Amino acid sequence: MRNIAIPLYPRFTALDVVGPYTVLAFAPECKVSFVAAERVPVSDDRGTLSLTANATYAEVSHPDVVLVPGGPGTIEALADQQLIGWLQGVHQHTQWTTSVCSGSFLLAAAGLLPGVRATSHWGWRERLADFGAVPVEERVVFDGRIVTAAGVSAGIDMALALLAELHDPTIAQAVQLAIEYDPQPPFGAGSPATAPAGMTDAALALIR
Questions:
Q1: 103 pLDDT exceeds 90?
Q2: Where is coiled-coil annotated (predicted)?
Q3: Which of 52, 59, 144, 159 has CB 3.0 to 4.6 Å from 20, enough for a Cys bridge?
Q4: Domain ranges of the chain
């Protein structure tokens, strides 16, 4: 059984959590826990959806995998010493330490990314260099046992790639088929490289 811990903090982005959770929870021999300082509901960045932490940091000290979500609340979470201290402690024992979107900045704040190739949401990715990381314009980045994903929806891709490492590609493909993950977006606006001119400002305004 592989124990996977997803820390929750106020104003996380729901899909950063729920996308990877769905992939990993479908897999055999994977137990996913939501952790926080207390066993309480934690609200997402829209304020309309809450997930309840079913374990505290103190109760989860040796997870096999940590998956840190991002969201507008990342800025405040950078000063959350309980969360940062927990990340520093559990990373010593994890098989994989991972993040989605701006969650990589929390890994960086915990001192886990000096010299590490990492990614994040395109709007903030280059700022990872301020923490000593090496920003990479890729959707999913493996560097040693640290795995980072780009913005929001990239967490699903990361979780599937991670599952292939935890088990094997056949299991990952079976889960992909089970959840019918076959992206066919109606618009080619999912990247600054392909979006219409002027779209980046409008997109950033939605998530600040």
A1: yes
A2: none
A3: 159
A4: 2-183
- For the cut 90, the answer to whether the pLDDT of residue 207 exceeds it is no
Whole-angstrom distance, CA of residue 70 vs CA of residue 103:
4
Q: Alpha-carbon distance 111 to 115, whole Å?
A: 10
Contact status, residue 70 vs residue 103, Cβ threshold 8 Å: yes
148 exposed, middle or buried (CB, 10 Å; 0-12, 13-18, 19+)? Answer: buried
Q: Residue 88 has which token pair?
A: 């520093």
CATH of domain 2-183: 3.40.50.880
Reading the block at residue 139, the tokens are 């959707």
Give 27's contacts (C-beta < 8 A, 6+ positions apart): 163, 166, 167, 171, 175
Amino acid 171: pLDDT: 97
Output the pLDDT for position 123: 96
This prediction has a pTM of: 0.96
pLDDT tens for 111-140 read 999 999 999 999 999 999 999 999 999 999
Catalytic residue selected from 27, 35, 77, 101: 101
What percent of the chain clears pLDDT 70, i.e. is strictly above it?
Answer: 100
Q: Residues 100, 152: contact at Cβ < 8 Å?
A: yes
Task: Give the other-Cβ count within 10 Å of 120's Cβ.
Answer: 30
